[in-house]
Amino acid sequence: MRLFRRPWIWLSRFRKRKGYGVHSPFAYSFIRGVVLETSAYYAYSELAGLHPWWVRWFRLYPMECRQLLFRLANFAEPKRVALLTDDEATKQYIQAAVPRAEFVPEEGKAEFVLVGEGRLEEAVAVAKKMPEEGMLVCEGIHGSRRAREIWRAIQQSPHTGVTFDLYTYGVAFFNPKLHKQHYKVNF
Question: What is the spatial distance between Cα 36 and Cα 18, in angstroms, rounded to a whole number?
Fold first, then answer.
């Protein structure tokens, strides 16, 4: 069912692609240089083995999503990472992106936190604990009505700065130097 929804999602966000209408230099460079980056990174070829052959051959969405998470972690360059997800392939992608980072079980001490779709209820509490300069990535922000409410609560939190709605993922920055802004991106 999700496969048939992808074209509709893409069409509904058509005007939000490639950074059109974004006037913030930080947001534009983040969208163009991280979210929509198409270049191959150093670990993509070895991590591709985590996917079945048909996902690699057709470059299907699960592979693109994990590569996005790789780029996000690589962009953040965190010292400490907390992964609140049960997906082992995603964990391997993030570990390959930041091999020197310490992986901690407590999200309050991490600069990069990934909250999986199954643990999205914890995301608001995690957002309150995020340090300055931190990045929170939430998976499945449009999966249900409750997921959309959680994402709105994170966006409206006074602690949250710039947020990016990528439909499958929500990315929130907690840098107080950045003006609070919400962007929809066609990913």
Answer: 7
Angle between helix 88-97 and 61-76 (nearest 10): 40
Distance from C-alpha of 42 to C-alpha of 56, rounded to nearest angstrom = 16
Alpha-carbon dihedral 163, 167, 170, 171, rounded to 10 degrees: -60
Domains in the chain, number: 1
Domain housing 82: 2-18+25-184
> Whole-angstrom Cα distance, residue 37 to residue 15?
18
Q: What is the pLDDT of residues 5-51, one digit of tens each?
A: 556 555 555 455 555 556 678 878 888 888 878 777 777 667 776 66
The beta strands (E) that lie in 9-168 are given as 80-84, 102-103, 112-115, 135-139, 162-165
Predicted TM-score of the model (pTM): 0.83
**Average pLDDT estimate for 95-111:** 86
Find the Cα–Cα–Cα–Cα dihedral 114, 119, 120, 125, rounded to 10°: -80
Helical segments of 51-109, H only: 53-58, 61-76, 88-97
CATH number for the domain including 168?
3.40.50
